[in-house]
Sequence to fold (389 residues):
Amino acid sequence: MNNFIFENSTKVFFGKGCVKEYLCCLTKAYGGTAMLCYGGGSIKKNGIYDEVINILKAAGKTVVEFSGIMANPTYAKVLEGAKLAKENGVSLLLGIGGGSVMDCCKAISIAARYDGSAWEDFWARPGVFDFEPLPLGVIVTVAGTGSECNGGAVITNEDLKIKTGRDYPKCNPKFALLDPTYTYSVPKKQMVSGSFDILSHIMETYFSEPNEDNVSDDISEALMRSVIRNLRAAIRNPQDYTARSNLMWAATMAENRIIKLGKRMDFECHQMEHQLGAYTNYNHREGLAVLHPVYYRHIYKCGLPKFKRFAIEVMGVSAEGKTDEETALAGIEALEDFIAEIGLPVSLQDLGVNENTDLKAIADSCALMPGSYKKMTREEILAIFKECY
Fold:
């Protein structure tokens, strides 16, 4: 294992009924005005909104609402939320939703307490805090990003066509409430793509040095097997509590920094998808499903032992009668088959990316990261995009 320092400041409350049991007492420590942040309004249809509003009122909170947070949250939306928080003297942000809502809230927590340009000083480049971000609590309704247990947020600057992620521990939610039954009403497509996002996060960490035996890789393999098994179960029965609770906790485990300890990783596949998304605004998680198998065929030779291990230990490939390279490729093919099995797109055309999209401009805008088995060039990224089309 490489050296590391570990800390996670988010307090997690997990299980059926946890919002009703704990939210009231949790909010008492954070002033009198809460800003309720959410997306398109589905929480008003499934009863979650009414439950939360009643709890906040019982706690004596003044509630300010901030809705309409979109997938791939924009910097303009962040500024809108920060302005609302400042004008109303908000003392607590309460995000209800999935990764997009949580990411937007983290960025708002900075912008609401910072007088300069939050984009220039915290997203365009890593920022330095000489202030405390606005406190944030989250109620998770979509399992996928694991954003509830880290300070990471990905924000799109539409004017610049740049989608950038930063992870600031100071932006960790103070508390996270995870009730698996809240995910029951999520549409199948969103549940499936969110679950693949979990798998993607784990793979991006797993396929990196060190290659020698380490605890992080052992945990990652168990998590990947769990995601595949429980996603299949949740597709068969969307109200399978065991499957939905396992997926929800796997999402948290994938991004609470535990499996990243001692790993180099670079999330290059995410870097490529971020820029594709910045230019096309398609679904982030579906984009990852398209990119991963093609990307892995470009790098597997540089990490052959790990790709062979993935094939055997995660995808259940038999190595009998196969060379190491054949086994590794069979693992990537099995991953590709699983993506098709669960109904996710397998090409950029499936995502609606048209032939006039300037793939070269997108490739040229991608960040090149050093942490995985092979550092990409922009020429190779362009080749990957073309193969995905």
Observations:
- The domain at 195-388 is CATH 1.20.1090.10 (Dehydroquinate synthase-like, alpha domain).
- The chain has a mean pLDDT of 95.
- Residues 192 and 342 are 7 Å apart (CA to CA).
- The chain is about 45% helix and 10% strand.
